Each structure stands twice: as C-alpha cells, then as structure tokens.
Fold:
Amino acid sequence: MEFNGTCDEIGFETTMDVMLTGVGLYGGVQASTHDVTLELLKDGVSVSTTKTTMISDGSETPIKVSFEKPVWIPTNTKHVVAATIKGPQTWAGWRGARCDFEASGKIAFYQTENRNKRSSTEIGQIPVLYVLCARKHHASNDP
Structure:
C-alpha cells in the first residue's frame, strides 16, 4: 500500500516547559524514501512546518525527523503534531503509552478531532517525541 499523503497526528500536553525538536516516524517496511511534511499546531493554527525526506533501511526502528528549529512548548498547553508521509508502505506502532520524565514531569497524549487522520493514541506512525526540558531565562542584574 502506497501512502499518498494521508495525515497522521497526535495531540499532547506537558506538565513542564519543553522544546520540541522533532519526532520519530516509522519508516518503510523495505528500504525506501518518503517525502514528509511535519507540522506543529496549536488551537488549529500552524506553529511550525518542516518539509524533508526520510530514508528508511526497512527496519522497524523509528527514524528521527527534526523540525528546522526547536519549538517552545509551554506547560499545560495542548499541541498537535501532524506528519504527512508520501511513499511506500511503512511500519506502524500500536498500544500507545504515556511518558514520564524522571522526577520532573509528564506528557499526556490525546485524540485529535481530525477525521482524515490514520493515527490515534493507540496506533499510528508517531511513536516518539523528541523534547528537551526547557527553563525560562530571566533577565539578571548580575555582572
């Protein structure tokens, strides 16, 4: 089955400030190349879009696809990551899970309202979010 641009997406919310640097996507079931559009949305509005090519060796291991620039995700704000993949058949994940940061926070995943998507919190193409724990920098009077 060829993927002709159907969108996979997952909603998430964190209990701490993070920088979203990219996602892990499942690659082709055989060595292949896919065109990928990666998008981050907040309240239905695009915050960041990256178009790139994903090269797969045919393994089930997710492939990191990075945003052009890391995106600031403030605490307790809902965002949606959407990936549009064009190319040959890919692997897919199932039995989604939550993510806990060691002693510092959590990421909760939720269903999105897009009826044209193929993924959910239980199955799909986006098994990994790459985040960096972020700290707000405050102006200081120190020399």
About this structure: The chain has one domain: 3-133. Residues 137-143 have pLDDT under 50 and may be disordered.
